[in-house]
Structures are given as structure tokens and as C-alpha cells.
Amino acid sequence: MVDLFKYCPHCAGPIVYKSIPDDTHPRHVCTLCNTVHYLNPKIVTGVLPIYKEKVLLAKRAIEPRIGLWNVPAGYMENGETVEAGAERELWEEAKAKVKNIRPHLIYSIAAINQVYMLFLGELVDINFSPGEESLEVALFSEDEIPWKELAFTSSAVCITKYFENVKLKSEKVHIGQYTHPKNL
Amino acid sequence: MVDLFKYCPHCAGPIVYKSIPDDTHPRHVCTLCNTVHYLNPKIVTGVLPIYKEKVLLAKRAIEPRIGLWNVPAGYMENGETVEAGAERELWEEAKAKVKNIRPHLIYSIAAINQVYMLFLGELVDINFSPGEESLEVALFSEDEIPWKELAFTSSAVCITKYFENVKLKSEKVHIGQYTHPKNL
Lengths: 184, 184
Description:
Chain A has 184 residues and is of the alpha+beta class. Chain A contains 2 helices and 11 strands; from the N terminus they run βββββββαβββαβ. The first copy, chain A, has helices spanning 82-94, 153-168; strands at residues 15-18, 27-30, 36-37, 42-51, 54-60, 69-70, 73-75, 98-109, 114-123, 134-140, 174-177. The longest helix of chain A has 16 residues, at 153-168.
């Protein structure tokens, strides 16, 4: 992304990446209109739906990681709250709704400038079905989780910490990070 | 931001904002190289430092809201975790360090595409001092909080929920949002 940010989106002037006064970080600055363009991490928002101590996962119908299971989640959009974004993604991917949505995991992947904000919520009913981005949607108890067929490490941590909380009767909200640059 | 995104940062081609196949939202698309540019919310990350049930606030030396008090926070940067960003901002604004950093408040401002991710942490020591972006740094007990001189609603909610948690002996992590488009 940094290397590809070559022209100013405001005026099409050439961009230079340089240190600027009173700033801790170098920035992308337009050499024509002088606008400073700040590039920041993106939020992936999602919710792990719970039903009688089972959790709802969706099998991806799209790349990357097509055919693997995931906590329903996707990029947060402008103009929404992070929890509304999680509920939107759940509806898009699994045609499911939750109540009592609450924070569960904040998981940073610094290498690719992403922050997963994953919530918990109780499924309102079990009338779920695959959305356009999913091949299949299903409930899993802890011993049914397809650990080797999970799409992303964020899902594995999210599910692990949920069942850990259940055992400990805890409502702890977790922080996590992915530190290995390969095999995201 | 949407109105100003007129030229492709990759090739300087003209951008159109339009619906695209298999996407729920209209996007900014380059008419020359066809790149789809996704504009997403930004994270403001920060930490409310605690010392003997007092909290550390910083008085802003920069606009907006110069001269008003704030929970030390700022935009998360690419290449860091959200909690590391909070610790960096605390150091920049108050030359302070915390231990046991943990989530406290996720506060969305949909009208301006921001998500505040505010943590709690215990001050390591009281050798704090104003950074370049602060006029003053000080510890406040609950009855000393300068409620009418707080810079942002996120700070007011963050502090309120902290003292609420103390009274309830709770470690609840809160969700909040600012719904009024004016007077942010």
C-alpha cells in the first residue's frame, strides 16, 4: 500500500513519503497541494454467535481461504459503529442475528495493518443459512470445532478464548496479536 | 473524504464512486487501472492511566480543543498493535508508562468514521510530564475531574465508566457511540 500511494487522491499531484515537522512518523505528502495523507490500520469486525454453548461458524465461499471455516467477520465500513458492522457481517455471511452483543477479543495483525474486533452474542434463533459469501453455516460444540480447517488465526484465538471463558465462568475481554509475518 | 477522493493514488486516473458486482457498498473505482479503493474507519487508540484510584489526563497543546483535558490517545499507526499504539500515545503526550494494559471502552463515532479503543493500565510510576502535544499532565480523583473542560465525549465516557466499574467492583468492557452529528 505504501509503495502504491504515488498520486494525490485530491489533485493527482505526485506524492512523496517524507518526514514532516511536528510529526513522529514520515507521511505521504502531495508535492502540488501539500495535503498530508495518513494511512492507518483497518478494522475487521465480527461476532461469534453462541447457542447453548455451541458456536456458529461459516465456511468461506470466497478467497482468501475459500472452503475454510471462520468466525463471521469482515471489514468495518464508514458510517457504522463497530458493533453494527459485526451484526451486518453476521447477516451477510450467515443470515443470523444475535442479542446482547459484547466485546470479546481485540486482535492485531501489525504486519498487514489490521485489527480484528470480535464480539460475542447469543443467537436470536437458529434460522440461519449461508449468505452469498458462505458455502455452509453450522453450530459446533467445543469438541466439534474443525481446528485444522479454520481460515484465520483470529478465529482460532476467538473460539479458544470463548471456551476458556466458559470454563472459568469469566467474561474477560482478550487482547491478542499475530506476530509471524508468514502464513497469516 | 469521499468527495475529495477524485484521483487514483496508484495511477492518477479519474475515480468514480459506483456500485460494483458482488459488493454490498458502492466503492471508489479507478476508471483507468480499475483498482477498487476501500475507505474505512480509523482507530483512535489510548489508555486511561490509573494511580491509587486517580486517573491521568493531559491538557491538549494542539487543535482541535486546545487547552482542554483528554484521555491520552491518538490515531493508531500502521505496523503496530492497538495496545502498543495506546502506549506510544501515552508516552508522546504524557511521558508516562503503564503496566497490565487491558480493554475498557470501544466507542464509535459513525459520523466521522472513527473508533476509539481505550484501555486501562496502572501507572508504573508518577514521573510523568507533558509531551510536545500537551500543556499539562495531572492526576485526578473522581471529584476532581474537570468535566466541563474535557476535550472529547470519548474521554467523558471512558472516565465515567472507569469510576462506575470501581464502584461495582467490575471489569466490564464497555461499548459506546456518539450519535449526535454536531458538537463532537
